[in-house]
Write the structure tokens for this entry.
Amino acid sequence: MRDYISRETALKIIYTSTAPALEVKAMPAADVVEVATTSWEDIERIGFGSWEATCKHCKRRMMYMAWWKYCPECGAKVEETRKKQYEI
């Protein structure tokens, strides 16, 4: 498992310490979580006001809500998605 530390603190130790390797090694690891990102693809209109799309990360097809910031199936964070323009 990887350990993540503060870059700012590590650089400060490296530039000011006489034994930087020992001090950096003793730094506590940050509590971080890797974030999966995704976007919606194959957005289709299936009725008046209804849309379906596929999550690029988990490949699940589902009802699409433009305001969703995370995929409800896999939890991946949704980056900007460009929706095709449809005529009514």
Notes: Residues 37-78 form one domain. DSSP finds two helices and five strands in the chain.
